[in-house]
């Protein structure tokens, strides 16, 4: 069954947003804070986002052809059609739904910036997981 969320646009029209599934690391305090901040900023559109803890949904991840290790190392978002985006592409998809984040989504999607931020994000996640003793091994 398809779900969609109605939101009022600038002109007062109603836009339909499909439901997204976000696979995130709920054991990470910063990730939980980011989720709460996103929900607060997203307002009504937050209802169209289902948050799934990668630590509790390994079987589901595998059914979606997502390696649980990869899901721990990078945010993954599934759209209503079942397409999976990860890393900055996942963040960009989420950010485009929030008016105050939409301009930033465009900026971080620029080729040079996206490459640099992807490297920084990957490095930061690996350091955080190593510090917590949760860095997956190959």
Give the integer mean of the pLDDT values. Answer: 88
Number of helices: 6
Regarding quaternary structure, how should these chains be classified?
single chain
Sheet bearing the most strands, described? Answer: 4 strands, mixed
According to DSSP, the number of beta strands is 6
Report the helical percentage: 40-55%
Computed CA radius of gyration, to the nearest angstrom: 15 Å
Give the uncertain stretches in residue-range form: 1-15
- Summing up helix and strand content along with how strands pair, one would put the structural category as alpha+beta
Strand share of the residues?
Answer: 15-25%
Main sheet strand line-up: 4-3-5-6
Alpha-carbon distance between the two ends: 37 Å
Shape field: globular
Summarize the topology.
Blueprint: E1 4-8, E2 14-18, E3 20-24, H1 29-42, E4 49-53, H2 58-63, H3 68-73, E5 76-78, E6 84-86, H4 88-95, H5 102-108, H6 111-132
Parallel strand pairs: 3-4
Antiparallel strand pairs: 1-2, 3-5, 5-6
Helix pairs in contact: 4-5
Structure description:
It is a single chain. This protein is α+β, with helices and mostly antiparallel strands and 138 residues long. The model is unreliable at 1-15 (pLDDT under 50). The termini are far apart. The protein is globular, with a radius of gyration of 15 Å. It has 6 helices and 6 strands, in the order βββαβααββααα. The longest helix has 22 residues, at 111-132. Strands 4-3-5-6 form a 4-stranded mixed sheet, covered by helices on one side.
